[in-house]
Specification:
CATH topology: Rubredoxin-like
Strand content: 25-35%
Shape: globular
CATH architecture: Alpha-Beta Complex
Radius of gyration: 13 Å
Number of domains: 1
Structural class: alpha+beta
CATH superfamily: Structural Genomics, Unknown Function 30-nov-00 1gh9 Mol_id
Helix content: 10-25%
């Protein structure tokens, strides 16, 4: 089971496997998972990644990620 939550520092949506103690956001903030508000739960890593991508794209008027170059 994977937990989907937001970073308190930058607001980015993240996911982490249930049972781990901490997760470090790309912004550098170390998040204690026992203190976060869980937004969603996902069965597997693929589903969690899809949920995070959908949440990140929400309200940004973008159709998705584009390849570099």
């Amino acid at each position: 089971m994977y937990l989907i939550f937001r970073c308190a520092g930058c607001g980015r949506h993240l996911y982490a496997e249930e049972g781990v103690a901490t997760r470090t956001c790309p912004c550098g903030k170390r998040i204690k998972l026992n203190k976060v508000k869980v937004i969603f739960r996902a069965e597997d890593e693929r589903e969690a990644g899809e949920m995070v991508r959908a949440l990140q794209m929400e309200g940004r008027d973008m159709t998705g990620f584009s390849p570099a170059g």
